[in-house]
Amino acid sequence: MRSKKYVSLILLSAILVQIMAACVSTLSLSPAPTQISVPEGWELVWQDEFDGKEIDTTNWTYDLGGGGWGNGESQVYTNNPENSRLENGLLVIEARKDQNDQGGFEFTSARMKTQGLQTFQYGRIEARIQVPEGAGFWPAFWMLGSNFSQVGWPDCGEIDIMEYVGKDPTVIMGTLHGPGYSGALGLTQWNRQAYNIADDFHTYAIEWDENQISWFFDGEKYHTVTREDIGERTWSFDQPFFIILNLAVGGTLGGLVNPNTEFPAQYLVDFVRVYQPIK
To answer: Is 163 a catalytic residue?
Structure first.
């Protein structure tokens, strides 16, 4: 009798283990949706949470090709899934070092934009991002004026919400470019931390109205440019702008690619959200 009881207990335990394993498996396939915390005084007007299976082509298109992009960059931008895709609720922009037909190699990456699809004038624009580690990488989250195709740069205006260069891993930058204050003369602020920024996700944002633009890192404001700061130069920021996410390799700001820099490298974006003030 005792042995039968033991056998029954063993069988019951095995069944319970199988049921628990099935429950865990089911939970892992159906993760809880991310709770969106809307900042006080704002309302959410647009978002991409990157939770689907494919990049949403109603939100994003691509810049393609090489040639340095005006900054001496080394990569060729593609729209191939090796360079941009969705994985585990994240947008992955991947820089690769691939062999070419000449027996050498080339760098490939992606530059995604909402141009012609989604534009925004004023508000809070933010993204939660993990940048890649390594000297030579130059990821950015930025915006250009929607009249870029008509008037060119810098007259269209440029808002660099976040730039990071792997050769200086504790610094992120926020910059404003326009006519008379572009390139090396851009109105920029370095924001240095006590840790390697590439080690984790961080939230980068601007708050933008008709009189000023302020930059935020993980909720802390570190830079503001006002209309008065521009003086007699043109304030190019009273118009819609489109969003750009890209991972450059090398270039005037990215610098030389260190031989020890590891490829492939991933620029990860959890979400991009746009808010407008509640009226």
So the answer is: yes
